[in-house]
Amino acid sequence: MKNIIFTYRKTIGLLVVVSTLLISCERELSDDAVLATFPTTGEVFTDAPVGLTDQFFESFDPATGANTEGFGTDDNVAYQGNSSIRIDVPSPNDANGSYIGGIFTDRGAGRNLTGYDALTFWAKGSTTAVVGQIGFGTDFVENRYAASIRNVELSTDWRKYIIPIPDPSKLTQEKGMFIFSAGTESTNGMGYTFWLDEIRFEKLGTIGQVRPAMFDGEENFELSFIGTSAPIPSNSVTFNLATGENVKVNAEPSYFDWTSSNPSVVGISDLGVTEVIGSGEATITATMAGVEAEGSLRIEVLGEFEAAPTPPARDPNDVISIFSDAYAFTPVDYYNGFFTPDGQTTQGGADIFINGEVTISYTDLNFVGIGTFNTVSPINANDMTHFHVDINVREAIQPGDFITIQLLNNVGGLESSGTYTITGDQLLSQEWASFDIALDDFGLAARNQLGLIFFISDATISDIYVDNIYYYRE
Fold this sequence. Notes:
Blueprint: E1 2-3, E2 6-8, E3 43-45, E4 57-59, E5 71-74, E6 84-89, E7 100-105, E8 118-125, E9 130-136, E10 147-153, E11 159-164, E12 176-182, E13 192-202, E14 208-213, E15 219-224, E16 228-231, E17 236-240, E18 246-251, E19 257-260, E20 266-268, E21 273-276, E22 280-288, E23 291-292, E24 296-301, E25 319-323, E26 347-354, E27 357-363, E28 367-371, E29 386-393, E30 402-409, E31 416-423, E32 432-438, E33 450-456, E34 464-472
Parallel strand pairs: 2-4, 15-24
Antiparallel strand pairs: 1-5, 3-13, 4-7, 5-6, 6-13, 7-12, 8-11, 8-13, 9-10, 9-12, 10-18, 14-17, 16-21, 16-26, 17-18, 19-22, 20-21, 22-23, 22-24, 25-34, 26-27, 27-34, 28-33, 29-32, 29-34, 30-31, 30-33
């Protein structure tokens, strides 16, 4: 196995939606002027990387647990030719990281992939295992046309895999050639190896029955407020392959063409971001390549939004802020960690902007993690006495509803955790409730390396706003 030089970039879980004013200008073009075109190369890796950057593997951020030591090429194993990519998936307690993943990017300004209809590759594993994610379109910059499949089942024999392109006409200049992420959820924590070969974009001509969907094909309803902006989650396209197999591809909103039934109430951008403008009701629908997407989002706008309570003024030295406009933020790795193999359904975790106020929105909540590993070290809260959070439940509260807050210390090492449960009678529907919880009440064995904050409802409460998350000393 040869080691491949690579780089990594930090991925940010906080999505900032910026309204951009596009100013167009006209100029005269000569009859000889030619619009810029980009290479149409389909090969990504055959016996060697094709047209990729010299450091062609860019790992996910090690601060999130990504292992940077298990990627290389193998001159002893190949589906075709003399070499393949070898990926050693680490065990959860590996000192170098608990999972492996990253991307391959184009060497130049990008490729024109409009002539292809699928990314294909061959793969096999040292054991039958499940790779969490494989796809393309992620470049660690915009990820505008990212697409991927989840839970890819490996065989111990070589097998060809096909990932249909949601709408090839969009990929006129794509830099993100490949992405993968793998852990050991399917092997009960046992590390394993898998190989990739003959990665390329192809025109198969046998992909049919395109079925795009927003919100996984469901009819959704939500209450909102004037000034709110938020992205549409859970977009996908299902294709039928020549084998008869149906493949579901998770697709970024930019693949879709969005429509609002009442733009004076709710507008929507080509990035799939809703902008609430006035009171009333509107329904968001979409098409992809002319095919109507299953599912919709009906939004009832109640009027102006009541922001979360303003926290009391405290000495900055007495506060470690995770998310609050009142205090300087501590660096956070993500506001919604990727825990899908463990059954997570929660969407959101990006800020929504409401009349200049920034709030976190979670929907389909069963559990969600906020990563506070930081790029230097986890949070030392030994000198703090309390945990504060404001929660606004966006639905009716039923008997038995609850939200449990779990704090994890020394994640991935000598891990310990503690919990505190907020019962339904302590929460408010469509209103903010503030909680100041003594850290001693969590029952933590230690709190010198706090790396994760979990909000857990087990789906008893589905939709919430969260704000002013911080530790403080009283």
